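Before the break, one more example. Copy the sequence into your notebook; we will annotate it together after we see the structure.
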Amino acid sequence: MNHAIAVDIGGTNTRVALIDENYQIIKREQFPTDVNSPANTIDKIKVIIDGFDTKALGIGLSCPGPLDLIGGRILVTTNLNEPWYNYEITKALKKACGLEVYLENDANLATLAESYIGQGKDYRYVQFLTVSTGLGSGLVIDKSIYIGAHGFAHEIAHLPLWRNGLRHGQIKAGGVEAISSGTAIVERARKAGLNVEHAGEVNELALKGDEKASEIMDDAKEYLANTIAIIYSFIDPEIVILGGSVALKIPGFVEDVEKRVKTKVFDPVVPYVKVVKSDLNEDSGLLGGACLVFSKKTQ
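Here is what the structure looks like once it is written out:
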């Protein structure tokens, strides 16, 4: 049986998994990412892969972005420090492990997993958005990730929706991530004087009638729905899948967003609007890494 290795380098932890062609995770390990040293992180990945003692077809690699997907580099990221900027991660990992390395961002890989084994497996045009710490997006057409001319397709975090709107980290003012992501929801709630730790608590306060919390959650859903309506106008996907902690853990969030999208698209499009929850767990990025390797080896 063929195997692939999936590596997910995150701002907190790095996960490494050995996955078979039935998309079963055979072995999995993780360790804290060295945010100051990509070389140390690569060395630890190599030790884990060597410990698998299984010949794999290649490595599907996910890193924080934005990424140069064509050149195989991390461009810049708020989750890792400057030594990672412009780092040729694909070249370094290939040299260390002796395997072909295929780089993608986490949202693209999650979308690929959805299209192969998740909610999108029966569709040709699969759109995925993760609503969590940040807000990411991916598009898969006929089981192939669409990256655009320069690899920046569906980097939607900065999508400008709100004139002179909210800011969040490096996100441009009024960008959708500054309104609808989990961290943005919490940041805005705290600035409004609410004592909360995560977006779910903001939602609970909204359900209890707190006006500030209600406004924040309403904006998060409304501007996310605007984003999805724009995607329907340009892409015409068959299905839109929402993942991430905000979408999956807040009751009724996805259903409410779908209702709002249907009020925003052109009338003939309404019957085709389908916004659903992901049924894959937090391993979707790892599984997508395996999908990427297997797809490359069959081309």
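The chain has two domains: 3-106+282-298, 119-277. The first helix runs from residue 38 to 52. Try to locate both features in your own notes.
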